[in-house]
Amino acid sequence: MSATLDHLGESVTSPAEAEDSREAYLAALDRIQDLALESSISAKLTQLGLNLSEQQCRANVQTLIERAQAQGNIVEIDMESSEYVERTLGIVSDFHPGSVRAVIQAYLYRSASDLQELCRRSIPVRLVKGAYQEPSDVAFPKKSDVDSNYVHLMTQLLDTGVNPAIATHDEKILRTAIEYVQKEKISASRFEFQMLYGVRRDLQRRLAAEGYRVRLYVPYGNAWYPYFMRRLAERPANLLFLLRNLMRN
Ligand code: FAD
Q1: Residue 117 lies in domain
Q2: How far apart are CA 162 and CA 173, in angstroms?
Q3: How confident is the model at residue 142 (pLDDT cuts 50, 70, 90)?
Q4: Less Cβ around it within 10 Å: N or C end of the chain?
Q5: Which residues' Cβ are closer than 6 Å to ligand 1?
């Protein structure tokens, strides 16, 4: 399995913090190259200063993309809450063609047209369900609607996307994806599955054993709190899991 490294951090409050994030990612890219690892990096634009200055954020992104490109690697730009979608897609699109992948969230109403535009421009996309609390005027409030929109966007992405990533642990959706690529004779080398490190390891191994490309999203670093809270919100049972392991240790 390959990886994508997420140096934890978001919504930095000073240009110096944004520069620290950029430096951490440059160090990660260099280590990935030194060790010949199959790993990209995944960064959030608010971590690179989007809230402070779009110009500084763009300069930081450019530095990362140039380094990644020189090393034959890519930068995946995570998608944050809906207030950032327009600016994030704008920045990703401006750096294309380059070594960059965008993220589309299936819970947003706007995603079908965003995805169509990204695919039309051959910009690689990672498809996720979406991890932030969003109001009902921008996102489907019902999980069943998010799931069916995910499947709809997934087929659109598999048909027309370049280097697409199907990022979910939803076993039913993953089976649907496999049935679809088999029916449409889409080669396993044309797309990848992505999952969070440590979540549904059984499924990760099974997909890899079946010959599919699997990339694990690996968060690291000290600024773990917002990431951890989003994972808890997705699956409150994780709190019990954590407590049990803390007691055991
Ligand atoms: P769900 O329906 O939530 O879950 C399906 C099943 O997966 C659950 O029944 C459970 O068995 C398992 N599962 C799901 N989550 C957990 C968990 N935390 N712990 C344990 N088991 C779990 N969101 C964004 O908004 N922006 C991003 O840039 C982004 N990048 C991502 C990158 C990757 C590689 C992945 C896998 C997810 C990313 N996400 C991102 C998060 C995503 O939006 C969802 O919140 C998350 O993946 C949970 O949804 P699901 O598709 O797994 O389906």
Answers
A1: 2-246
A2: 20
A3: very high
A4: C
A5: 78-79, 103, 105, 128-132, 167-170, 194-196, 199-200, 217, 231, 234-235, 238
Residue with tokens 């490309």: 213
pLDDT of residue 210: 97
Query: Ligand 1 mean position to 228 CA, how many Å?
Result: 12
> Do the beta carbons of residue 160 and residue 133 sit within 8 Å?
no
Tokens of 138: 């921008």
Pairing of strands 214-220, 39-43: unpaired
Other Cβ atoms within 10 Å of 215 Cβ, number? 22
Dihedral sign computed on CA atoms, order 183, 189, 194, 195: positive
pLDDT band at 11 (very low <50, low <70, confident <90, very high): confident
CATH number, domain of 133, equals: 3.20.20.220
Mutate which of 1, 170, 197, 245 for ligand 1 pocket (most atoms within 8 A of beta carbon): 170
Cα–Cα distance, 126 to 29 (Å, whole number): 20
Q: What is the pTM of this model?
A: 0.95
Q: Are 31 and 64 in contact (CB under 8 A)?
A: no
